[in-house]
Amino acid sequence: MIGLIIFIVAIVLVLAITPFVLDEKGYVLISFNNTTIEGTIVSFCIMAALSAAALYLTYKLVRYCLSIYRNTKHGFFARSQERKHAAIEQALWSLINDDYEQVDSALSSNSVPPKFTDIRLALLAKAALANNQPDKALERLFEISPEQQLKVAKLWLASGDSSVIEPQIRVAAESKKATVFDLKLYTEVLVQQQHFKLLEDFLPRLLRKNALSDTQWQQVFLAYFAAQASDELTTKYQHLGKKLQAHAYTAYLTQMAKTGQLASIENELIKLLKHNKQHDQLASILSEAAPSNAYKLQSSIQERLKKDEHNNALLLALACLANAQGDYDLAARVFDKALNSENKSQYRQQAILSYKHSAQLDKALVLYQ
After folding, report:
1. 227: CB partners within 8 A, 6+ apart
2. CA 158: distance to chain centroid?
3. Are 153 and 185 contacting, i.e. CB atoms less than 8 angstroms apart?
């Protein structure tokens, strides 16, 4: 644009100077339809120069106005983007500090950049779960785009309704490229949805992939056996392969004790007495025992205690077994000796039961507090 204006000005100057050089004023006539413009070359050049100047000034004014508009628009957009980034940043810092109320406050009333929309919804769902608002969490989870649903699978599990993502997780877990995380997620979904027939078929793959820790195996089998009829527990356990039985052993014995079948597993429990490392396991199993009798086991525990009277795990096992057999006085005496700050949380209810039925309500009340 500047070059064109300079070119026009140059032509005008040449036209203006030429008449003086040639000593001839010259004459300009412009006729268009019924309109005629005429005058000397000098006047024409002056008008052309003024027109060029006006054109140039108009050009500069238009550019200036456009620059103001662009800067204003960019500045507003930039500030808006800054606010959106600040909201997601504040929410993440609050999440790190477990301040879920602040997470909800930072994101509920603020938008975020489009690429963070699903993350915003996931954070709001997590905050709602932390604040005991499962319905609100589910509302947020349903808003997340379908392609991102697997990334919030843990939130669906925590919400108590993993049925929505079960098909996607199943596809991921059954693929040849399934990760250990995929296998764990699918296992958790099957347990939560109580699809134990599918779980039975899936257990061998979990074993081959070594997908679960000992604690996770225990949790899976506790849920599995808890869902079975009491008269089918042994059959279900025996149908498992030997390697799976090793992982299911404690959970099976615990559920048998819960259903009052100590007599059926008495010999298995006596085997646990042989190794000191298994005494805590024995006490834990017996802490879940429903009323039933296992006098041979009691005798074996008492014989072992004669050789190791300070074995606290065996003392706890004896106390819990005494409760199951209705010998609350014995249980109370043993709890007086064995209960301490380290095991109180696990055996509190058993101790309260013994004190309550042995007319020691003062001790029971202390444990209630």
Report:
1. 194, 196
2. 8
3. yes
Residues 6+ apart with CB under 8 A from 140: 121, 122, 124, 125, 128
CA atoms within a 13 Å half-sphere pointing along the CA-CB vector of 117: 9
pLDDT, residue 32, reads 65
Backbone angles phi, psi at 247, to 5 degrees: -75, -30
Q: Distance between CA 166 and CA 145 in Å, rounded?
A: 16
The tokens of 36 are what?
């005629």
How many Å separate Cα 68 from the centre of its chain? 46
pLDDT of 176 > 80? The answer is yes
pLDDT bracket for residue 78 (50, 70, 90): low
CA 229 to chain centre: 34
Rounded distance between C-alpha atoms, residue 156 and residue 126, angstroms: 10
Dist CA 215 CA 82 (whole Å): 45
* Contacts for 194 with CB less than 8 Å, ≥ 6 apart: 227
Give which of 310, 281, 128 is closest to 215, Cα–Cα.
Answer: 281
In percent, the amount of the chain with pLDDT more than 90 equals 46
Tokens of residue 106, six digits: 């930072």
Supply the pLDDT for residue 17: 61
| pLDDT, position 10 | 63
Are 118 and 147 spatial neighbours (Cβ–Cβ below 8 Å)? no
